[in-house]
Amino acid sequence: MKIAIVYPEVYDIARFGKKRKEFPPFGVLYLATVVSAQNGMEVKVFSVESDQEILDFTKFDVVAFSIPSSVTYDIIKCVRFNSAYAKDALIIAGGVHVTIFPEQTLRDLKMHAVCIGNGEDAILELLCEKETRQFSHVKGVCCLVDGNTIFTEKRPLKKNLDHLPVIPARHLLPDPDFIMTNRLSNTNLKMTHVMICQGCPFSCNFCASQQKQMQYRSEWHIRQELQHLKDSHGIEGFAVVGDNFLVNKRKVRKICESISSLNLKWSTLSRVDTVDYDSLEIMHDAGCIEIKFGVESGSELILKAMGKGISVNQIYNTIKMTHSVGIKVKAFIIHGYPGENMETTQETIAILDNLSDMIERVSLFRFVPLPGSRVYDQAKENRLLVTGNNWNNCHIYHNPNHWWGDKDDFAVIEESYQQLDKFIFEKWG
Ligand code: B12
Ligand code: SF4
Predict the structure, then answer these.
(1) Per-residue confidence at 391, pLDDT binned at 50, 70, 90?
(2) Phi and psi dihedrals of 56, rounded to 5?
(3) Is 238 strand, coil or helix?
(4) Do 299 and 321 form a contact (C-beta atoms < 8 A)?
(5) Domain-by-domain residue ranges, the chain?
(6) Which run of H or E residues covers position 380?
(7) Measured distance CA(211)–CA(199) in Å, rounded
(8) What does the DSSP assignment read for 251-320?
(9) pLDDT for the residue numbered 388
(10) In sequence order, which residues have a C-beta less than 8 Å from that of residue 84 and are 6 or more positions away?
(11) Would you say the CB of residue 95 lies under 6 angstroms from ligand 1?
């Protein structure tokens, strides 16, 4: 059976002004690995772009689309309807956007079935039903039966991620797609991205993470992959991919102990309230050179509105502690959350200013309500959108439009954003 797995190429145009490739989605790499490990299955991976030419899938028995974020939905839609398929091809989809909007995707993209959540088992079971098109016993799927949408039984989450293949199918892609330099903190180290955990038990209102339960790969699983990447690609470092690495400190300690002798440098994301001094020291000794903290705002008011569950004091303490251990700090900031004004923006400027000697880098994002987040649903319900855009046509990628309030609020958000942006640019470039 020939299977095409299609994913949208991701570029960081917003920050770099020109096309700078991001790393390929891990969902696709893991799916490709599990499918190609089956007898008689031949997998080809296609990365597609917004100006994609018509693709010829007529030689494939199955075309599987991955939609890793809502922002790339239109790219996939375009490819789905402009490509050529074999007459009996099975057409399926999965990914974060599909998990949030299964029925809409199923109908809008005219899929035979779509997968909700993790897909390593579901895709194999769907492929088995290529001829019968009977998907109702496949867990975690949305499909049509006699023209009616059905949702099959939920697929239970596994306790950890050790069922995944140790090495995702990076070999299906050219090396420069996943081995990079200039991407690990401010270094030129040869690095790659490694998916270590999934899920996050917290509930920030702006976040679209759909999985509350934490799943980690075990320390030996991760070490094997890193050893392989070191031996075969000569990596000197890696960046951890996952919503929130530092939730389970016992796991973090075990992972650190297991990888430290590899002498790799690495970075990870974290909340400010899940770190402690001991964990930071252990991470530092295991090669961690940078933590990217979800600081979001310097205003208690905005942090509260965001449901972030952290305080300005915690931000101060954690950044100081991290710096004192010798790990660099990157701060992620979101500007323009409902309630933002000149005063709250000044509070963010003040905290960044006070901590500037201890912050290596800052990433500033303009707030947009992400499909799948609580604030998106509220905004939609309360019709808070004021841009005049068609809601269904919202582009969530660094959108400079305003999403709530009236014209006066919009003017304030614009002006305060410019001030914050200027401040960050002058301090950090
Ligand atoms: C890594 C990551 C990135 C990387 C992506 C690299 C890439 N090429 O995709 C980078 C940093 C570039 C990035 C950028 C962005 N991201 Co991002 N990202 C993530 C993160 C943290 C992890 C994704 C991951 O690797 N998961 C692990 C893999 C194994 O799981 P998976 O991808 O879900 O795949 C599984 C299933 O979905 C399923 N599946 C997937 N495809 C298919 C296909 C079929 C046929 C089947 C059966 C199953 C299936 O099976 C897979 C294996 O189990 C998620 C957080 C999250 N909770 O998902 C956010 C997340 C996806 N990102 C998000 C956002 C908003 C963005 C940005 C818009 C941010 C911004 N403002 O710039 C950009 C958009 C980029 C773009 N153009 O798409 C949101 C998406 C919300 C939404 N509604 O779209 C998330 C959910 C973050 C959040 N918590 O809110 N991101
Ligand atoms: S923003 Fe981070 S901490 Fe908050 S829910 Fe999302 S992944 Fe979890």
Answers:
(1) very low
(2) -105, 105
(3) strand
(4) no
(5) 2-151, 179-428
(6) helix 374-381
(7) 5
(8) HHHHHHHHHGGG--EEEEEE-SSS--HHHHHHHHHTTEEEEEEEEE-S-HHHHHHTT----HHHHHHHHH
(9) 43
(10) 54, 55, 56, 57, 58
(11) yes
Q: Are 61 and 4 in contact (CB under 8 A)?
A: no
Report pLDDT digits (tens) over 107-145: 999 999 999 999 999 999 999 999 999 999 999 999 999
Structure pTM? 0.94
Topology of the domain comprising 179-428: TIM Barrel (3.20.20)
List CB contacts of 141: < 8 A, sequence separation 6 or more. 113, 114, 115, 116, 122, 126, 135, 151, 152
Amino acid residing at 380: K
Work out the average pLDDT over 218-229: 98
**Ligand 1 mean position, distance from CA 108 (Å):** 20
What does 73-129 look like in DSSP terms, one character per residue? Answer: HHHHHHHHHHSEE-TT-EEEEESHHHHHSHHHHHHHTT-SEEE-S--HHHHHHHHHT
pLDDT of residue 362: 97
- What is the per-residue pLDDT for 84? 96
Separation CA 192–CA 233 (nearest Å) = 9
Distance between the two ends of the chain, CA-based, in angstroms? Answer: 51
What CATH architecture is 2-151?
3-Layer(aba) Sandwich (3.40)
On whether the CB atoms of residues 6 and 68 are closer than 8 A, the answer is no
Q: Is 137 helix (H, G, I), strand (E, B) or coil?
A: coil
Q: What is the SS3 assignment for 176? A: helix
70 Cβ inside 6 Å of ligand 1: yes
Which of 42, 45, 41, 43 is CA-nearest to residue 26? 45
Q: Is the CB of 198 under 6 A from ligand 2?
A: no
Report which bound ligand comes closest to the CA of 122: 1
For the chain, what's the residue count? Answer: 429
Per-residue pLDDT, 401: 54
Closest ligand to 307 CA?
Answer: 2
Instruction: Please work out whether the CB of residue 198 comes within 6 Å of at least one atom of ligand 1.
Output: yes
DSSP 355: T
User: Is the CB of 119 within 6 Å of ligand 1?
Assistant: yes
Give the pairing type, strands 113-115 and 90-94.
Answer: parallel
Amino acid at 63: V
